[in-house]
Amino acid sequence: MPTETFSIEMNMTEIGPAAKGTNPKEVIVAIAPAFGKDMNKTIVGVDHISVLREILSGIEEQGAVPRVIRSMSTADLAFMGHGAAKLSGSGIAIGLQSRGTTVIHQRDLDPLSNFELFPQSPLITLETYRMIGRNAASYALGESPNPVPVVNDQMARPKYQAAAALLYLKECKSLVKNKKPMELKVEFSIKA
Amino acid sequence: MDKFLAGVDIGNSSTEVAIAKVQGTQLHFVSQYLVKTTGIKGTIDNVKGIRFALTEAAKKAEIHFHDIELIRLNDAVPVIGDLAMDLISETIITESSMIGHNPDTPGGAGLGIGTTILIDQLEKVEKSDKEFIVVVPNPFDYEIVAHLINRAMDQGTAITGAVVQKDDGVLIHNRLNKKIPIVDEVALIEKVPLSKLAAVEVALPGHVIRTLSNPYGLATVFDLDSDQTKQISLVAKALVGNRSAVVIRTPQGEVVERKIEAGKVFLKGSNNQQLSVSINDGAETLMQTYEKLESLIDVQGETGTNVGGMFNGLRQDLSLLTDQSPEEIKISDFLAVDAVIPTSISGSMAGELSMESGVALASMVKTDRIPVERVAAQLKKDTGIPVEVGGIEAEMAIRGALTTPGTGKPIVILDMGGGSTDAAMMTETGKLTSTHLAGAGDMVTMLINSELALENLELAEKIKKNPLGKVVSLFHMQLEDGTTLFSDTPFPPYTFGRVVIREEKELTPISSKASMEKIRDIRRSAKRRVFVTNALRSLKKILPTGNLKHISSVVMLGGSALDFEIPQMITEELGKYGIVAGFANIRGSEGPRNAVATGLVLSSIHKEVLR
C-alpha cells in the first residue's frame, strides 16, 4: 500500500472552437455540455474526473493521442459521438454523457449506428471506461480489438430510468443553441 | 401418365435425392435436393430427412409427392467414422521463473537487469551501486508510480526496468524522465519473487526480443555455466517470438518440458502381423508403419495412456452407434495427423501460451452391416411408396460420375465427403475395386478448431468453407490473395478492423488475435494434411499395382470437391504423377454433387453401365 497519500486533480480549460484534427492517431472524447461543469458525478455517483481520466488513460496506453471537446448544441449521445468522429483525425471518437452513457463512433457510420454502445450507464465501472478508451484507440490504429464485455441487468432500466431521464433534462439545461463544440485542455496533476 | 423415379443417397453428413421422369427407356432428371443427414447414417432417424428432401425435390419438379413410383436407396457402405484429438507434450513451470508474454502495449524498449523490489520499498533503499527492477501491483496508480520512480532516480537510485500488473506500461513510460523498459499486464504479479536477480526486455513495435530468447544471452545476463545454460534453454525457447519478457532467476526454479506418456499404438494386420509405434514419434511415423501392413485388421492403444484413451473413446462412440459391444468393434482404417495446439502453460504468471504438439485421429469401423433394410421398410411404411435397396454404393457413384461430360471407362473416382474419403475404380470390362478411408471434411474442421483455439465448431466450419478478408475501412477490405476490394455500401460496423470470413452474402468477424495470413495457413495446411494424404492413400489402395503412375485421370466427387481450394490442391499433387484430376459435373449440371443418387436412378433403367 502507498506509504504516502497522493491525490489527483483535474484542470479543464476551454480554449476555443474545436477544429478538424489532422493526426491519424487522434481519438476525440466528446463530453456532454454539463460534464465536469454543472454536473460532476455519473448516475451512480462516480466522479467525472475519474471517468474521463480512465478513458484518456486507455487511449494513451494503447498508443493513440487523446483530444477532448465539449459538445455545446446537442446532448444526444449518438450525435455527440458522430459529430466528434467527423472532427477526429482518425475518424474515431467517444461520446460521453454526464450520467455515464458512452459510445464509440466512426465518421463513416450513420449517426444512429456505432462501433460499440454502452447504454446501461449504472453498470459501467472505471475498468470498463479504461477498456472503452483502449478499444477506441485500437480502432483508430487499425487494429481489431474484441468488443468490451458489457454487463446486462434487466433491473437497471426500471431502477434507473426515471433518474436517467432527469439527468438528461438537467444536462439539456447547459445546451447552447447553434454553438460549435469547444476544444478543451485537460490536465491532471498530482498532489502529494 | 409419366412415371417418376427417385434415387436417395444417405451420406455421413448429407442426404441427396434425385427425381427423374421415365419415358420408355429415356430418363429425364427433373429435380434434386440436399439436406443434412438426420441421425447417424443407416439408422431409422434418416427417414425424416429423406422425406423432407423428397418433398422439396417433388415441389421443385412441380409434381406431387405420391407421383413418385419407386424410391431407390443406396446400400450404404457399412463404415462409420469418428474423430479424436489429444496432446502429447506439455510445458510446465515448476517454480515461477519467467514471464514471457505479449501484452499489447509494453512500455519503452531495451534490456534492463537488476534486483526485484516492490515499488513502495524504493525510498527505503540505501545508497549503493545496486540496480533495481521495480515490481508494481494493482493498487498503485500509474501517475503515482511514475512520480515515485522519477523521485527515486533523482535521488540516485538506479532503476533499470519495471514489471506492472495493470495495463499501464505506456502510461508510466510516458511520464518518466529517464526511460526504462516496462512489461505490463502480468496478472499474477504476487508470484514474482522479490530481491532476486531479474532481467526485463522489451522490443520496439514490430520487433521481437533478442537477448532473453537466446540461451547464451540468458547465460550472459545471469552469469551461468554450461550446465545451467542447458537447463535454462527451455525458458529461452518459450520466449522466442515475444515482444517483451521478464526472466527472474530463482535458485530452484526450472522449466521442464514434459513429454506426456502418450503411449503406444498396436497395429494388427493380416497373417498375424503386429506392429507397435510410440505415438510420441508423431503422426508421420505412425502412418509409415501402417503402410507396412498388408491390410489392417484392428488397432489398439496402450491402456492407461492418452492414446489408449483416444481409441477407447472411439470404440465407445462407435459401439453406441452400431449397437455392438466395444470388444466387437474393429478399426478398419485410421488417419493420424500432427497438430499444433495452443495450450496455457501450467504455473505461468501471465497466462502464457505454448504451442504443444498433439495428434488428431480419424478412424473408421466396419460394422456387421448397416440396417438399410430397416430404413427402407420404415420409409415404405411412412410414404406408401415402394422402396428398393439399390446396388453397391461405389458402382452407383461411378454410374453417376460417368454422366460428367468427357468421362468414360476406365474411370477412377475420389469421393471426398464429410466423414470419409472413398475411392473406386472401374475397368473397361466393368470390374470394380473400392476403398473407404477415415478422415475427410469433419477432420479438417476439427483441426482448424483446435489449432486456432476457437472452441466453436460452427465457426471452424465457416473458416473451412470460405475465403478470408481483412476490413481495413468501412469501404474497403484486403483479400487473402493481396488484392483490395472496394465497396459502394459500407461494411457492417462490427467488422471494422477485423479479419472476416467472406461468405456469399455475409461477413462473419473472427474474434481471434491471429492474423489473416496465420488463419489462412492453418486452414490450408489442415486441408492438405487430410485430403492430399488421403487422396494418395486411397488411390494407392485401389490400384492393383499400387503405382499411381498407372492411372491417367481421376474424377473428384462429394461435398469436399465443392470446396474452393481442395480440388486445386489435389490436382496439383496428382499432377506430379501425371494424373489429370478434376471435379465431376454430374449430368453436366450438378457439379460434384448428387452422383450416387443419379447413379441409383440410372441403374434401374439401364442394367449396364453406359459409355
Structure report:
The complex is a heterodimer of chains A (192) and B (611). By secondary structure, chain A is of the alpha/beta class. Chain A has one domain: B12-dependent dehydatase associated subunit (Rossmann fold, 3-Layer(aba) Sandwich). Helix content of chain A is 30%, strand content 24%. A 7-stranded mixed beta sheet of chain A has the order 1-7-3-2-4-5-6, with helices on both faces. In chain A, strand 2 (26-31), helix 1 (48-62) and strand 3 (65-70) form a beta-alpha-beta unit. In chain A, helix 1 (48-62) runs parallel beside helix 3. Chain A starts with 6 loop residues before the first strand and ends with a strand. The model of chain A has no long low-confidence stretch (mean pLDDT 90). Among the domains of chain B are: 1-77 and 369-405 and 590-611, ATPase, nucleotide binding domain (Nucleotidyltransferase, domain 5, 2-Layer Sandwich); 95-253, Glucose Oxidase, domain 1, CATH 3.50.30; 259-364, Ribosomal Protein L22, Chain A. Chain B contains 14 helices and 30 strands. In chain B, the strands form 7 sheets. In chain B, strands 7-13-12-8-9-10-11 form a 7-stranded mixed beta sheet. Chain B has a 5-stranded mixed beta sheet with strand order 3-2-1-4-20, sandwiched between helices. A 5-stranded mixed beta sheet of chain B has the order 23-22-21-29-30, sandwiched between helices. Chain B starts with a strand and ends in a 6-residue tail after the last helix. Classes of the chains: A alpha/beta (192), B alpha+beta (611).
